[in-house]
Design a protein that fits this description.
By secondary structure, the protein is α/β, with parallel strands linked by helices. The chain folds into 2 domains: about 1-35, no CATH class; about 40-205, Rossmann fold. The protein is about 40% helix and about 20% strand. Strands 1-2-7-6-3 form a 5-stranded mixed beta sheet, with helices on both faces. The chain binds zinc ion (ZN). The site of zinc ion (ZN) has 8 residues, from α2.
């Protein structure tokens, strides 16, 4: 009887791994130990488009799959794992606010959330920093087939100042899920510079 009860409570606590669905007695994360060990969290600074970007991990399995599901399949339970990844990254105490990479209204309606905002919320709680969104983003059209310069000009045009408010921060950290070319981070940084932000760096969960 006691054994049955113990077994019942144990089974209740066991959760399948988010990625491979395996049950694992040692599950301490939302992932099983095997998948968690494959996750290579290795925080480092990279420079793209002359912006210093702190990245937590390379964009490879299993993180690439998690980010895709998080972004396109409403898999918001991955927020737990991103939280654990963020806990392993030391963000310098230089910043006054966090600026999540904005997404356009139409994309927000389609997706229902801004994935960068959710990551910014994790860091905001962790470092007790406000989230600041002084820039909005217009339509995000495909950049396929454009030259590098055309792409950069196209991306730059997507960012607009949001209606002005009294808040002003000078040292800010841009937050996004993945950095590839760094074009959107550069465009956002340039807009933030026009608002008087003289120190702008970025943090991304992964770098492709
Ligand atoms: Zn697994």
């Amino acid at each position: 009887m006691l054994q049955d009860m113990l077994m019942f409570s144990l089974l209740n606590r066991l959760k399948p791994c988010y990625l491979c669905s395996e049950f694992n007695l040692e599950n301490i994360h939302p992932l099983c130990i095997t998948c968690w060990k494959q996750l290579e969290v290795n925080p480092r600074y990279i420079t793209k488009q002359e912006v210093s970007i702190l990245v937590a991990a390379p964009y490879q399995f299993p993180l690439d799959r998690m980010i895709q599901k998080f972004k396109y399949n409403q898999a918001l339970h991955y927020t737990d794992i991103f939280k654990q990844i963020c806990e392993r990254v030391a963000i310098p105490e230089t910043f006054q606010a966090i600026v999540p990479m904005p997404i356009s209204k139409s994309r927000l309606h389609q997706r229902g959330y801004n994935q960068a905002y959710l990551i910014a919320q994790i860091l905001s709680a962790q470092y007790n920093l406000p989230i600041w969104m002084p820039i909005k983003r217009n339509h995000e059209q495909s950049q396929k087939g454009l030259s590098r310069i055309e792409r950069l000009i196209g991306i730059e045009a997507q960012f607009q100042l949001a209606p002005p408010n009294a808040l002003r921060y000078r040292k800010v950290l841009i937050v996004d899920d993945v950095v590839t070319t760094g074009g959107s981070i550069l465009a956002l940084k340039q807009k933030l510079n026009t608002l008087g932000c003289h120190h702008v760096e970025a943090f991304c969960i992964a770098s492709a």
